[in-house]
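yo

u said u wanted the structure for the complex thing, so here. seqs first:
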Amino acid sequence: MKPKFETLREEHRLVARAFQTAKAAQARRILLASARTGDGKSHLAGCIERYASVVTDEPFEVETLNSRSPRAEQTKGYVWVDGVALLEGEGAAVLTPSIRASLDGALLVARGMVTTRAELRECADRLRVLGMPVLGGVWNDVACPPPRETVRAFADGLRSWPPRLPPGVFIRHLRGPS
Amino acid sequence: MNKQLRELNPEALFHLIVQRWDLVVLLPVLAVLAAGLTYKIMPARYESSARLLIQDQQTVNPFMEDMVEEWSAQQSMPLVESIFRSHDTSEQVLRRLGRLDAAASPAEVNETVAEFQRSFEVIGLGGELVLLKVRGQTPTEAHEGAVALVETFTERILYPQRETLRASAILFQEQLEQLRGGTDLPRVVPPPDVGETQVIGTINVRKALAAAEARMAGIEQEVERSEDQLRRVSPERNQLEKSLASARRRLSSLSRRYGSRHPELAAAKRRVERLEEASERERKAEEDDGKTRAQKLEASEADEHQALLLQLKEAGAEVEVLRNRLLAEELSKFAKGSQVWPVEAPVMPTLPEGPSLWVVVAGAFFAGLVLALLAVAVLAALDDSLRGQRELAEAIDAPCLGRMPRGGV
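structre next:
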């Protein structure tokens, strides 16, 4: 027996509402998107993974975005796709037509007091232009650390600074014959 | 452009302040440092204050005395302020204090007077009470300024009635002299000119009179002592004459004891002659010595006596002058016109005016804090970041599903 909605913790209620919204919009595969890296997409995916069994009996799955994602008909229940930062790097260009065809809608995660209204508006507009309905937004209060890859790349950049020339190459070779 | 009001809940407000913690810390610290430096650099100012009761006793109807006095107090305040604020008063004060050179040009005079006028203020405390505040860079400067200003003001406001009073006092004294016979009284010395000399209150005149009388008594005692000394000089001369008479008596007894032809008599006569010669020399020497000493003593004592008599006369004259002045002061109580009573004489300030260093620092800290909060408010008004779930829903034009709380996962 599932607990009453009012007695749930805040994160439980959030997950329950996400499932209700997806059900209402008849969306099976939902993209989790945000404006910037570190806004909390993976955090929301983690929340769904942990608390979904508490608030719903529906089968679900959480997966990361890649071009070989299977079509929704092949899976049962809801699939939450930990998606892209729309205003960073390749952004919305990652959402190829095949991927777009496999997704039924998107949830936009915004970090409170950090993400601007203009950024969020632009993200929603881009998703709508690509034909993906925006099912709702999630307010994230947690300062999410950036992904490990970003931290590692930054640390590598610091470690290799100042940049060195490859072995066997000297400054005089770069200057040319004097 | 979105004209809607921005969302502002307590949590967002807290976030806005925490996000700008550098401003919230830095501005109060800078304000405290600036206030402390300014406090140390700025020269200290001292303030000396005095309270004056200016009574106008021009009563018309004794039954309406209170009302008339109140009315006259209201009417006299502009006069008091105009006297304090007048150029002449300030210039007179500055010249009295020596802060204005006699050879100063009119421009310099005007500048110095204007500066002095800025350094004091006159506040009516209601009724006939006036508070005077004089500021200066040193305690002495403030105190001297206040004293000189009070004196000059008193002279100027009382000048007309003092002139009238002076004439009446002279007339009164002359009539008194006529009543007493006019022979044994000394000549009447008119009261001093108020405009030229320092105005002394009745109490001060009484004190000066008592001091002069005490001095006169002392001089009289000195005169008596010098007369005693003069009397003591004559016995010394009598003693010398007595020693000469005893020598003569001894000579006669010797001549009676021995005959005229005895060898021992001759020897005795020679001895007597020697004794007589010695006695004569001694007598002469004593006489000469005694005469010169007595003459010197007499001369010096006589000179001193004369000087003391002269001082006695001067003291008597001074006593007379002070009695006249006291009479004038007593008369002025009954004269119709203004009275200036120093309720609180100017006091030498010991502490500089203004708040203490700690108050300034605390004020600067709070001012810096308020400034920092204002700066945060301005920056927040320019900031476009999301402040609540309502703004999130408006931005994406879709419902907000909820929030992921801090520390919840």
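The beta strands of chain B are 46-56, 120-124, 129-136, 338-344, 400-404. The CA atoms of residues 124 and 130 of chain B lie 5 Å apart.
cya
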